[in-house]
Amino acid sequence: MKLTLCFKLLFLYPLFAFSQGKIKFNSLEYNLSPVSIGKTVSLKIPFSNIGNEPMIITKCQSTNATSFISASKKSILPNQSDSLTVKILNNSSGNFRHKFVVGIDHQENLTIIEVTISVFGSNLFGKVVNKKNGEPLPFATVRIDKNGIGTTTDFDGKYSLKASLNDTLIYIYLS
Predict the structure, then answer these.
(1) CB-based burial label for 125 (10 Å; 0-12, 13-18, 19+)
(2) Neighbour order of strands in the sheet with 57-62
(3) Is pLDDT at 142 greater than 70 in this prediction?
(4) Residue 50: which of 24, 69, 28, 26 has the closest Cα?
(5) pLDDT higher at 15 or 133
(6) For position 19, what pLDDT does the model report?
């Protein structure tokens, strides 16, 4: 009798073990269009529960200090979809790969999602001078044409401004 019961439990265990939620992503790799430095980029990453039981996202973290990922704490029913929210802070220019780790319920298998992003732009440093005599022009206005963001030169005509690769700068000096 005990042997028969043990055999039945061993036979049924795989059925119970796979009776759980299972996460499926449309993609595990994302490439974002070039973005300007200093901008925060948000991305929604859709997923579905393709298992036969409800699931909850229990692990959701970034491996990079300048990016964040979050998920709803609600239970996702079988055949139901939801999305993760990724936010990436872009404080320097270049190409960056962000990795995110996602896990559900108490499963050991984790999913890795990669987001590649190109950030253009940098801090521009310059000096505004009088064209005729080369003297610095203090309190001149330097601004980006398309968005109006700008700064003013210091006593030595120097300025610093975050700008993107194709930005056009406008210089204004009232004498």
Answers:
(1) exposed
(2) 29-36, 111-120, 94-104, 57-62
(3) yes
(4) 24
(5) 133
(6) 54
